[in-house]
From TrEMBL:
This is Hemocyanin-like. It comes from Hyalella azteca. Belongs to the tyrosinase family. Hemocyanin subfamily. It comes from the Eukaryota. Residues 287-298 form the Tyrosinase copper-binding domain. Coiled coil: none annotated. GO terms for molecular function: oxidoreductase activity. SUPFAM superfamilies: Di-copper centre-containing domain, E set domains, Hemocyanin, N-terminal domain.
């Protein structure tokens, strides 16, 4: 990251590639490309082809090795971990999705806990983005559970057993298999690293800060959190990152929680087991306990949000603007499809034996494209932000959520800027243009081929389209739904965009997955809190619905099985 020229950076990378741990090297290279000016515009290959061991079942890796040794090309199917005896198997397609895994690891590369502004720039609203990105993962997981007739996920408790065990069926390239956790394991101290009592103490201090309305900085000053900026400070101390104003006092609740949960298979180091899936960003979401852990974190954030006063009609209104109709063109349909990716980097090669083609095929969720249609009347030309949410309508027992119950479960589907004309406006927005999602990065081989063509001057490949990997895969924008059609509330709010510094540049832009990932090196484009206007309590839904700029309609998401 400190290299001033491209030649120096490449030579440094080549030097360290031969001398440091493989995982460290890949992490360092990706972080440097993301954050260095020299890396601007570079499309990094998908991590599931660079380090396939972290994304692929060990059974498939073994078959790939056999294929290489016998010089027999092969394509091998990945089965999700567990069996039908385990209810969590119904939603394994979500936590084990290779695209979702890449989003999670890339978010933490974009916003690393170790980041110091001395590296070149400030990561704007990093703490709030930590809350929002993980909140959205949690509510998306809950929507998938409801789609599969499961209760929403329950949070973890330090004094109760971890009900669900997990057998990851994955292995390190060097260093053995990822540890298995049995059912009903109880939290124990991890020798020399973290104690359960430390987790409880730090949680209590954070909840006290929420109750008191301020965080105590290391110099004793008080940082007010009873405002829109409070969530950012809270995210900094919960994660915690170098931005934490008092890490020694508030601890590192999130990071330590991943370690203590991950080490429960061998908390005392008796068997010298390697780190678990919970200790790698690439693999953490494979374990269903990841979502229980983040529901625990999410409920702490909710406690803070619920301590703030509800928005007034004036705060959520947009005078002179009427959202008269909300609709969707095209049926909301999901399905499973097969996806194939390369496994060459999963196996060792030698000069004495040729590489053979080995690949993995995995079933993954996708949906048909659709288009939003919004009819908006405006009394003048003005910049606006259109905020789109999809909220499960019923709980697992079929009972309709109240507006207040349901708003915390809403999935952010899109957020975009547009210029309203005076009079009637009809806005159509494709699902593929969502600022929440990113497309699949092409395979490593495709990137190599297209780069060679570009050097030769004959490539029409749009590299800029794949410059970011942080974002929900665009094929997973919709939750699975059900065969008979699962009901959701499509909630839309049109708000004033005049206070957003970059609204002119952002109007109708489709290239940035900025809602959960921000914009590199720049201020977060939206001046409102993330999740606005559904992020605070709504004790009276009439206040929300009486504003002409807000509206909702009921839609159904249909699951159509295999494609």
């Amino acid at each position: 990251m400190n290299c001033k020229t491209w030649a120096t950076a490449v030579k440094n990378a080549a030097y360290f590639r031969e001398r440091v741990n493989e995982g460290e090297f890949v992490y360092a290279l990706y972080a440097a490309v993301i954050h260095s000016n020299l890396g601007e515009g570079i499309v990094l290959p998908p991590l599931y082809e660079v380090t396939p061991h972290l994304f692929t079942n060990s059974e498939v890796i073994q078959k790939a090795y056999t294929a290489q040794m016998t010089q027999t090309p092969g394509k091998f199917r990945i089965e999700f971990t567990g069996s039908k005896k385990n209810p969590e198997q119904r939603v394994a397609y979500f936590g084990e999705d290779i695209g979702m895994n890449v989003h999670h690891v890339t978010w933490h590369l974009d916003f690393p806990f170790w980041w110091n502004d001395a590296y070149g720039y400030h990561l704007d609203r990093k703490g709030e983005l930590f809350f929002w990105a993980h909140h959205q993962l949690t509510v998306r997981f809950d929507a998938e559970r409801l789609s599969n007739n499961l209760d929403v996920v329950d949070e973890l408790y330090w004094d109760k057993p971890i009900k669900e065990g997990f057998a990851p069926h994955t292995t390190y390239r060097y260093g053995g298999e990822f540890p298995t956790r049995p059912d009903n394991a109880r939290f124990e101290d991890v020798d020399g690293i973290v104690r359960v009592r430390d987790m409880i103490i730090h949680e209590t201090r954070i909840r006290d800060a929420i109750a008191q309305g301020y965080i105590t900085a290391v110099d004793g000053t008080k940082i007010d959190i009873r405002n829109s900026e409070g969530i950012d400070h809270l995210g900094d101390i919960i994660e915690s990152s170098f931005y934490s104003p008092n890490a020694r006092y508030y601890g590192s609740l999130h990071n330590d929680a991943h370690v203590i949960l991950g080490r429960q298979a061998d908390p005392h180091g008796k068997f010298n087991l390697p780190p678990s899936v919970m200790e790698h960003f690439e693999t953490a979401t494979r374990d269903p306990a990841f979502f229980r852990l983040h529901k625990y974190m999410d409920n702490i954030f909710k406690e803070h949000k619920d301590s703030l006063p509800p928005y007034t009609a004036e705060e959520i209104g947009f005078p002179g603007v009427q959202l008269t109709r909300v609709g969707v063109e095209g049926k909301l349909e999901t399905f499973f499809e097969d996806y194939e990716f390369d496994l060459k980097m999963a196996v060792d090669s030698s000069e004495s034996a040729n590489e053979v083609d080995v690949s993995a095929a995995v079933s993954r969720l996708n949906h048909n494209d659709f288009t939003y249609k919004f009819d908006i009347k405006s009394n003048a030309a003005k910049p606006a932000v259109v905020r789109v949410f999809l909220c499960p309508r019923r709980d697992s027992n079929g009972i309709i959520y109240t507006f207040e119950e349901g708003r915390w479960n809403c999935i952010e589907m899109d957020k975009f800027w547009t210029k309203l004309r005076r009079g009637a406006n009809v806005i159509r927005r494709k699902s593929s243009d969502s600022s929440v999602t990113v497309p699949d990065v092409p395979s490593f081989q495709t990137l190599i081929t297209e780069a060679d063509k570009a050097v030769a001057g004959n490539s029409g490949f749009d590299f800029a389209h794949y410059a970011r990997s942080c974002g929900i895969p665009n094929r997973m924008l919709l939750p699975k739904g059900s065969e008979t059609g699962m009901e959701f509330a499509l909630v839309v709010s049109v708000t004033d965009g005049a206070s957003d510094e970059q609204h002119d540049a952002l109007e109708d832009a489709t290239t940035e997955s900025h809602t959960q990932c921000g914009i590199h090196g720049e201020k977060y484009p939206d001046h409102q809190p993330m999740g606005f206007p559904l992020d605070r309590r709504i004790p009276d839904e009439r206040v929300f619905l009486s504003s002409d700029n807000n509206a909702y309609t009921i839609v159904k998401v249909y699951f159509k099985g295999e494609h």
